[in-house]
Amino acid sequence: MKRFEERKLDFINATNRLKEALQEEENDITIDGVLHRYEFTFELAWKTLKDYLEYLGISSNTGSPREVIKESFSHNLIKNGDIWINMMLARNYLSHLYDEETSRDIYNDIKDKYINELEKLVKYFENK
Predict the structure, then answer these.
(1) Structural domains in the chain (count)
(2) I need a surface site. Which of 7, 53, 68, 93 has the fewest CB within 10 A?
(3) CATH code for position 7
(4) For residue 45, what are the contacts with CB-CB under 8 A and spacing of at least 6?
(5) Residue partners of 73: CB distance under 8 A and separation at least 6
(6) pLDDT tens across 51-70, in order?
(7) What is the pTM of this model?
(8) 16-32: per-residue pLDDT in tens?
(9) DSSP state for residue 57 in the 8-state scheme
């Protein structure tokens, strides 16, 4: 439980920092900052989900983000599995390649969709 609680707080703080970055005036530096903050916020999100699943005794050998997302969706911890898979793919893309047009598309997805999913997870965990 302690690991889950610590990671949960880190995830909530990271989500808040991502929201702050999304409020800034849009320019190349801000977009780069949002993309970077998104990467570590998503990492904390799936790892917090993993810790919570383990705490509940639902799964102890869940390893990859994809497995954690699927398990979390099947236990109603997250509601939109498809968006979460897209969030994972976006995070993977950002950590391996850099193409300005695709990065801009990911930035728009973060702003329009992904932040909402992260905030829903924050609300879920704040009640736990």
Answers:
(1) 1
(2) 93
(3) 1.20.120.330
(4) 11, 15, 118, 121
(5) 79, 81, 84
(6) 999 988 887 666 899 999 99
(7) 0.93
(8) 999 999 999 999 999 99
(9) T
